[in-house]
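## Example record

The block below lists the input lines for one assembly entry, exactly as stored, with component labels intact.
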Amino acid sequence: MEKIYTNEKLHAESLKPKKSTIEFLLSYSKALSVIKYKKLEFDTLVN
Amino acid sequence: MEQTLQDSVLVADYIKGDEKALELLINRHSHRIYSFIFSKVYDKDVTEDIFQDTFIKVINTLKRGNYNEEGKFLPWVMRIAHNLVIDHFRKNARMPKFEGSDDFNIFSVLGDQALNVEKQIIKDQVEADVKNLINGLPEDQREVLIMRMYKDMSFKEIAKQTDVSINTALGRMRYAIINLRKMVEKNQIILTN
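Predicted structure tokens for the full assembly:
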């Protein structure tokens, strides 16, 4: 029986961002607030 | 259609301060966006970085109230991801990355700096042409040009050695170059390799 040497394909299931990446994004979003004062814009990142 | 509508509702909710809406949006589209990035870069770590940067841009834009593509959330995010993929390739073109693998061949990185026979012949020819051109210059101009270009002397030194002012030395150099150009044009000489 011939062996077929092919590269193992990445399963569609594995093509997802890491949980930690999503958690980081959600934390970043929660921490970020944009304050507008007249024509000025201030970003604040609260840890 | 329903999902598009929901996206726009979620975006509106997020802009109003509902953080949960962002989580829903990310979870809903993460697979598609992640797959899209991966299909371009074929590297999971790079994909992860670009995915993260994409949503950081999304968050910044939404929080600043600069988002105005209501109903087209996914195409908008995909475009951001696409632009970041292009940025990634541009950056890599400037700074090529060499992966350490068994197939890594050091000679693909190290070029042979020595000229091949053909290039050497062309270089010799160009140098001979330049030499002939310089010999065709008036004596005072040739003297200044040789001191400046071949002996790497400063104009101050040249002025002192030839017993003229710096301005005269500069002027002679200028005329030397102008005359060389004229000779090149007149004789149709090609000085490139």
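Chain A has a mean pLDDT of 77. The helical segments of chain A are 19-31.
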